[in-house]
Amino acid sequence: MKLETATLDLLGKAKKMIITKDETTLVEGGGDDGDIKGRINQIKAEIENTDSDYDREKLQERLAKLSGGVAVLKVGAATEVELKEKKHRIEDAVSTTKAAIEEGVVPGGGVALLRSQAAVLACAASLSGDEATGARLVAKALEAPLKQIAENAGMEGGVVVERVRNLTGSNGLNAATGEYVDLVAIGVIDAAKVTRSALQNAASIAALFLTTECVIADKPEKDDHAAHGGGMEDY
């Protein structure tokens, strides 16, 4: 088909269309729901069948955009600093939502990581030597997010970890109220992809430190009190 032979009935419809040099956004498109679902299923099949990590990533992005819909957010603020802060928060929220569409969600508040601890310990039991030690260290580290959340809320981290460990499913600490509830039911959830990536990145950094002979860090600056106190020198 050539452009001069195209007719209007071949075109789709949308309430609004935003085109930039990097992407095109359609707002309230008039596509057929059946056709859209069919395309979503086709993309899912292509994701399962592809051997290329690059193609899989691009297909996952396409799936997230196609199944996620479009929303227009208008943000206002009293100052430019506040506006930038809100903008960054919204960008983080959008990225997390896209990740949730790709790989689903898990209970938030550190519960998902704590629940996975049992599987890691079971794996450690089948290992020996340094590998077993490493697995047990990972299992211990899985408690850290929940423990930090509890301490930020003014609670004893170790006590909270033991309390949540004895609960089941998605039940955990609601740090805002100090109550133990079903976190999924009240909307405290994390994108599975974000949680997985955080754990993988942490493991990567830890492995790097294990093979590093020294680490160079910035020297802490003296505070005013120490500077005027005299007597002690840095060594």
Automatic annotation (TrEMBL):
Pfam families for the chain: Cpn60_TCP1
Keyword Chloroplast in annotation: no
GO biological process: protein refolding
Species this chain originates from: freshwater metagenome
Protein name: Unannotated protein
One Gene Ontology molecular-function label: ATP-dependent protein folding chaperone
InterPro entries reported for this sequence: Chaperonin_Cpn60_CS, Cpn60/GroEL, Cpn60/GroEL/TCP-1, GroEL-like_apical_dom_sf, GROEL-like_equatorial_sf, TCP-1-like_intermed_sf
Family, as annotated: Belongs to the chaperonin (HSP60) family.
Keywords: ATP-binding, Chaperone, Nucleotide-binding
